[in-house]
Amino acid sequence: MRQKHLKNLLLIFVCLVTINIQGSAVASEVSARVVGVEGVVSVIREGNTTPVTRGESLYKSDRITTEENASIELKLLDGSLINLGELADMTIADLVYDPIKKDGFTDLKIATGAFRLISGSIAKLGPDLMKLDTPVATIGIRGTSLVGKASEVGKENHIILVADPNGTVGEVVVENSAGVVTLSKKGEGVTLSNPTENPNETKKIFKTEFIDDLAKQVPEIKYENLQDRQFRSLFWFND
Description:
Layout: H1 2-27, E1 30-38, E2 41-45, E3 48-51, E4 57-59, E5 63-66, E6 71-76, E7 81-84, E8 89-98, E9 103-118, H2 121-125, E10 130-133, E11 138-141, E12 145-150, E13 157-162, E14 172-176, E15 179-183, E16 188-192, H3 199-202, E17 204-205, H4 208-215, H5 226-235
Parallel strand pairs: 9-10
Antiparallel strand pairs: 1-4, 1-6, 2-3, 2-5, 5-8, 6-7, 7-9, 8-9, 9-12, 10-11, 11-14, 12-13, 13-16, 14-15, 16-17
């Protein structure tokens, strides 16, 4: 009887391990989770468009769009937080992260819309491992917070470095075919309308009122420190 009981326990253990491995494999394919939705937000995946709901998983190559008066709040696999305002269009071009090997890469493409971003673990691993592509420039994120607005070529795109809620100011590199500039001061940013404009020539400190008006177009990020974000991301807590 005792031997049979041990066999049953062993069988249960093997099943749990198998489920955990399978679950980890599935979870590893997830790039982001939706932590907030307001209004009509859609995801375009493999040619199919479906509404986005809170708690939903997002994957590599997913394209997220918001309609008028709509917004979305996202938590990426590495604990990065990004919120989009109305009429936004963003694609998760690539996102891989291995917290054990301390390796990863993020590539987000924002075609239109205002955004707020607080970077997570990947940006701290190396200077070129997290990037944000807009129609006029590529932003290399080196552990920091941003507010900005992407627009089609010919219209103004804004990229502004801001302080984290804890007061830390990081660094970003803005680059296009015409030049490159590093932003390292609070409120420092660029305005570009064309990828042939040199970002170094438009670098300036933006007025607080302008930054606040831009930030109001996007939901405020519900901030928590990076350690908590990393822990929650391991289990994909959404609250």
